[in-house]
Amino acid sequence: MVPGVQPCGYPSAVRAYSSLLGFEVAVKYPPDTLPEQRWLTSLPIPGSKRAVPSEVTCGLPYDPFKVDVWQFAQNFSNFRRTTPDFDDVLTHVAQAKITVRPTAVEVRAQLADFIDKIALTSPLIPPVHLHLAAGSMN
User: Highest taxon of the source (predicted)?
Assistant: First the structure.
């Protein structure tokens, strides 16, 4: 349970789902693969039309996990945001320069910090209360 939030006593009729998967550049390594052996020089699936950062197309070895982080930021490129802190995280994640792009663990920590700062009692979009006249629910 989220601290400070009380259950309403009935289940929600709305279920939110989100999917940010792009398997065109996904690679599965055996569990005993050392980090320095987890490098690629081309797309795992040739001919993919998905946008990729410059390190993927230059022909040099690249870290596929840094590509995942870049693609995560690209998924939000058209997302309309009202929180500068979230924009700052995404700007950092979408860096073209791989040496300054954070790892997935670092991004998760940054997003967790951002979420922890959001006050659950003061949403950015206020709720709309509908007032129905007696007998109008027919």
Answer: Eukaryota
